[in-house]
Amino acid sequence: MMNIILSKCTGCGICKKVCPPGVIAIIAKKAVLTDYKSCLECGACELNCEFEAIEVTKGTGCFVAIIKEDILKITPKGTGCGCSEGCC
Ligand code: SF4
Ligand code: SF4
Fold first, then answer.
1. Going by CA atoms, what residue is nearest to atom 1 of ligand 2?
2. Residues 6+ apart with CB under 8 A from 40
3. Which domain holds residue 49?
4. Which CATH number fits the domain that encloses residue 63?
């Protein structure tokens, strides 16, 4: 589950830029999750929000990371999630 703490959000738009499925919009200078079902719960928005305005409870996670790590057995670079889809 992804939760936006509106009182902390400055509307900077970084979360929108890094979200792989593009389900964050900036409306009235606040981040808004536009499509709850399409959120991957990957955590990229939380990781890149310098105002700590997003909390993500990890769910399914990043599909690309799952495929690379669990199926292809490719070790991630470990530099962290600067998505959109820079992996990783
Ligand atoms: S990165 Fe954080 S502060 Fe910036 S718009 Fe997104 S939630 Fe708001
Ligand atoms: S958790 Fe990932 S998919 Fe969901 S809103 Fe944040 S960046 Fe987008």
1. 41
2. 20, 21, 59, 60, 61, 62, 63
3. 2-71
4. 3.30.70.20
In a domain? residue 79: no
Euclidean distance between CA atoms 33 and 53, whole angstroms: 13
Atom of ligand 1 nearest to the CA of 8: 3
- Answer yes or no: are the C-beta atoms of 56 and 20 closer than 8 Å: no
Cα-based distances in Å from 57 to 23, 40, 71, 73: 16, 11, 23, 24
What tens digit of pLDDT does each residue of 36-66 get? 889 988 888 998 999 999 998 866 556 666 6
- If you measure from the C-alpha of residue 24 to the centroid of ligand 2, how many angstroms do you get, rounded to a whole number? 8
